[in-house]
Amino acid sequence: MQHWKYILFCTAMHGETIVLFPPHITHADMRSAFPNDKVISAGFLNFNEATQRFTCYGKSTSLGVESRPEEDEFFANKLVERL
Fold it and tell me: What residues does each domain of the chain span?
């Protein structure tokens, strides 16, 4: 799997919510799909097949926002637990 991207939003309805998307979409383009939500963090993620866990890292240059690896991995890995 390629290193996908993510944005962690704070939404009025659900609190902190992570959105994962493919690398060909910019963080700024994905952000425009959620105009009313506050961006908390953004970056890239990698899925480790052996551990079945995501690792979050980096930053979004188009949004000017850093990742929060430990906090963001919590939300990304909640998605794996639901599958």
Answer: 4-82
